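Box 3.1 — From sequence to structure: 7,8-dihydroneopterin aldolase
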Amino acid sequence: MGHSDEITLTGLTVFGRHGVFAHERRDGQEFVVDVTMRLDMRRAAETDDVADTVHYGEIAERIAAVIGGRPVALIETLAARIADEVLAEPLIHSVRVTVHKPHAPIALAFDDVAVTIERRRPSDEAAA
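Predicted structure (token representation):
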């Protein structure tokens, strides 16, 4: 359907205060987000005009505002909020969001913990 084109933003690192524990909300930590946005880029490729595509710098700012905004307990909730924000852009048909929490309170040595969700515009559900 022409929706297989993708724009991917990886490693967006933003300070937030999300977590189950009071000290996570108090002290905060960095969260890292990867986002893959699916949209039809044929018109943009023809016109070479940013108005015909998604301005990924603006999307990054909107994602950063979600991460830096109201705290939530779970990174699952944070990922869903980011997906909703990205899908507010009408050109985007679906999105895959990964939220990394590399400084999660785990009492063992680890490199990263992350959740990944995929969401699509409700009007595209039937086409899936």
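Summary of the box: The radius of gyration is 16 Å.
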